[in-house]
Specification:
- By secondary structure, the chain is mainly beta.
- It has one helix and nine strands.
- The strands form three sheets. A five-stranded antiparallel sheet has the order 8-7-6-3-9, with no helix packed on it. It has a two-stranded antiparallel ribbon with strand order 1-2. Strands 4-5 form a two-stranded antiparallel sheet.
- The longest helix is centred in the N-terminal third of the chain and has 6 residues.
- About 10% of the residues are buried.
Length: about 110
């Protein structure tokens, strides 16, 4: 079975739309492989950890994560990770001390 992937490129109104069709066979010939996840993941180590609207305890709680949950890191602030929870379509912040698996840059 062949899969067809449609890629649409729209450049902020400066040009028209273009569609590129890549089939499974042609993508292999071109050396194209699916992109790996560009984000680091962290594992929640606290029992129940608050997910917040911003990087600090003064921000509103927008959800929670449980020990063992794996979260995608999309950004960071001192002591905090901005994470994405695909199951909830949620971007939030988690305290880095309650996670393992990623390292804050020095």
């Amino acid at each position: 079975m062949k899969y067809i992937i449609y890629v649409a490129a729209i450049l902020t109104g400066l040009c028209g739309c273009s569609d590129t069709v890549i089939t499974e066979d042609s993508s292999a010939e071109a050396g194209i492989t699916p992109a790996a996840n560009p984000f680091q993941t962290v594992l929640v180590t606290g029992n129940v950890v608050n997910l917040r609207q911003g990087p600090g305890t003064q921000y509103t709680i927008v959800g929670s994560a449980m020990a063992g949950d794996s979260l995608l890191v999309t950004g960071e602030a001192p002591g905090w990770y901005k994470i994405y929870v695909p199951e909830k379509s949620l971007f939030a912040w988690i305290y880095s001390g309650l996670t393992s698996g990623a390292e804050m840059p020095q």
